[in-house]
Amino acid sequence: MLKMNAEDLIAFLRSHFPSVDKSGLAVEQVDEHSITMRLPYHEDHLRPGGTISGPSQMMLCDTAMYLMTLAQIGPVALAVTTNLNINFLRKPKPADMIAQGKMLKLGSRLAVGEVTLFSEGDDRPVAHATLTYSIPPEKERG
Amino acid sequence: MLKMNAEDLIAFLRSHFPSVDKSGLAVEQVDEHSITMRLPYHEDHLRPGGTISGPSQMMLCDTAMYLMTLAQIGPVALAVTTNLNINFLRKPKPADMIAQGKMLKLGSRLAVGEVTLFSEGDDRPVAHATLTYSIPPEKERG
Amino acid sequence: MLKMNAEDLIAFLRSHFPSVDKSGLAVEQVDEHSITMRLPYHEDHLRPGGTISGPSQMMLCDTAMYLMTLAQIGPVALAVTTNLNINFLRKPKPADMIAQGKMLKLGSRLAVGEVTLFSEGDDRPVAHATLTYSIPPEKERG
Amino acid sequence: MLKMNAEDLIAFLRSHFPSVDKSGLAVEQVDEHSITMRLPYHEDHLRPGGTISGPSQMMLCDTAMYLMTLAQIGPVALAVTTNLNINFLRKPKPADMIAQGKMLKLGSRLAVGEVTLFSEGDDRPVAHATLTYSIPPEKERG
Question: Which of A66, B3, B43, C118 could form an SS bridge with B74, CB 3.0 to 4.6 Å?
Fold first, then answer.
């Protein structure tokens, strides 16, 4: 049923966003309703205080939602975020960050989902985001 | 561990918000991490088109988060919503509405949670909200 | 340029939401980019503590965004809120509430705006909301 | 009245986030209620399609809110974002990006503000964010 699997998604991401290669970002699982991604721990993502920065967390949420959507609609580069709401809950640990995405609605014009971030080995969420992607009409897709 | 159980919560709500009695709002389950509430179907909540109105949905999310917080901190009437973000996903059906709340973080100053709304008998979410409550310092509680 | 003026908007609201009549809700100004509404002070909107309730504030923000959109696209009853994010900033005073709306983007599929609430006579905002409305395609409008 | 002026703010940012130096980020104006920042156009911020990326826009909103808060409370490195809600409105142009921040509430525990982004030379907003910062209690500040 999926139009792109984990391997397809990462290949797509690497070809469109070359910096991804360096970060080691991985798709661990994807299905019709959910995705799990992992961002390996790197000192580059740190902010003062030694934790993974807010912008890195936002980017991870955005990427998880993007790939969860593409898995179902195919490689539509023009899908764009229209709304992102994120609550930062706890200081992340110096560890890999795990993103768990869940699709709330995949309509013909809008996809809405939520992404929860965890530090590996800790089941208390670090951040929680809800995101909306606008999906271009079929005829305008490249 | 809970400072208030389902019965306490509804009694508290009724004594502070008398209109609740009339609505038939019920707490079906509550524990340290979650709450389930039910809003019986009434024609009063309808908007043009025959569905439960957005404001009724927002009020239900807000109430679920409020009671989920009170269950853990006790009857602190002064806890107040500071942020509510809601995505309306699907037209609700003319049926009871079920609210499933999940606590994301209960700190000493802020409680953050999410609430998903369903029409009874349909597992596709109608709306999803994240909410933040500000908790008054211990010494200021009535 | 406007398809509906202040008088048209209130007439539309009254015919679709009869309870509006009772509340005394008024459109004080509307143009291509903004709207000003007034909710007269009534004891009914109060919550414990004597202030206008959160749900009343959310409903006012939602109505201001709805009417600001209709003013430009005409009486499209099927326009629906897809996202509402509100920050509650200060306890409102027992006074009329003023809503100032500003359109951020009016596209063919989505309208995005912000609404700031004030208690009359105080220039510090009581609440601030951003809202997205989904606009039905031209052919599906009633 | 301000505890830090534009020069202080940029110096603080550079000493805590060395990458800022490279980006050319500037504070053009700051007072008790507002801030204006400029992000010079660089090809690095681009995403496929040639526009400034969403993460770059989010980081700019977050930085503007952070500095607008520090201007009033002083160099409190431990102030942290607790909530960010952003609506992406239009494709930015390949031009400098201007951020206009406005403080909605500066309390003792929370600061809430909004930031609107523009492409230089175009008065239609590119993105709009509301943000909440948590302010550490006086005694815990470094």
Answer: B3
pTM attached to this predicted model: 0.94
Q: How far is B120 from chain D (nearest CA, A)?
A: 30
CATH at D100: 3.10.129.10
Q: Average pLDDT, stretch A15-19?
A: 79
Nearest CA in chain B to C82: B88
| C1 part of a folded domain | no
Distance CA D95, CA D122 (A): 10
B1 part of a folded domain: no
pLDDT, tens digit (0-9, with 9 covering 90-100), for A81-95: 999 999 999 999 989
d(C-alpha C40, C-alpha C125), whole Å: 17
Range of the domain at D56: 6-140
Return the number of other C-beta atoms located less than 10 Å from residue B123's C-beta: 6
Q: What does pLDDT average to over chain D?
A: 89
Chain D interface includes A88 (CB < 8 A): yes
Report how far apart, in Å, the C-alpha atoms of C93 and of each of C50, C96, D29, D49 are: 8, 8, 33, 49
Q: D1 lies in a domain?
A: no
Number of domains in chain C: 1
- As for the ipTM of the complex, it is 0.92
For D16-43, give one letter per residue: b (16+ CB within 10 A) or e. Answer: ebeebeebebebeebeeeebbbbbebee
Compute the average pLDDT of residues D4-18.
91
User: Which tokens in the block code for residue C71?
Assistant: 């003013």
Quick check: B85 contacting D, CB < 8 Å?
A: yes
Q: Is residue A130 part of a domain?
A: yes
> Could you give the angle at which helices C54-73 and C6-16 cross, rounded to 10 degrees?
120
Q: Rounded to a whole number, what is the distance in Å from the CA of A83 to chain D's nearest CA? A: 5
Name every chain C residue with its beta carbon within 8 A of the beta carbon of D89. 104-105, 112
CB pairs under 8 A between A and B: 38
Backbone angles phi, psi at B102, to 5 degrees: -135, 130
Total Cβ atoms within 10 A of residue D79? 18
